[in-house]
Amino acid sequence: MRRPSFRERMAVMSARILDRVGDRATLEDGTAIMGTFDNPFLDPQFGGKSGGKGPGLATQVDAAELGEPRFSVLADVAQRLPEGKALTIELPPAEGGGRYTVVRHEPTGDGMVALVLEQEHARTADIF
Length: 128
Known about the structure:
The protein is an alpha+beta fold.
């Protein structure tokens, strides 16, 4: 009998964790997926005071690397989300929730893929 690989075991464990504590996103067809949402501009420590314990996060990282929101999902889930696919992060707007488009995939090396997102804006035609 074949034993599951380390990567297969980690995928099962990660899926269980995401089901319990992950952030929910909804695809255009109504399918719910679980992952972890990260929007660096909403991070309370980004550019914040470090309490005298050294420089704050804003002085330690390249802001260009962190400038895009990300939704990390299991690799098999990421295969269903090609570039240009829309999804809605089911969080309050103050926490970054809203409609996004997948810009690119960035494998993280641990069986997860970070979907780099771009926020969809409803009002752009009347700005120009």
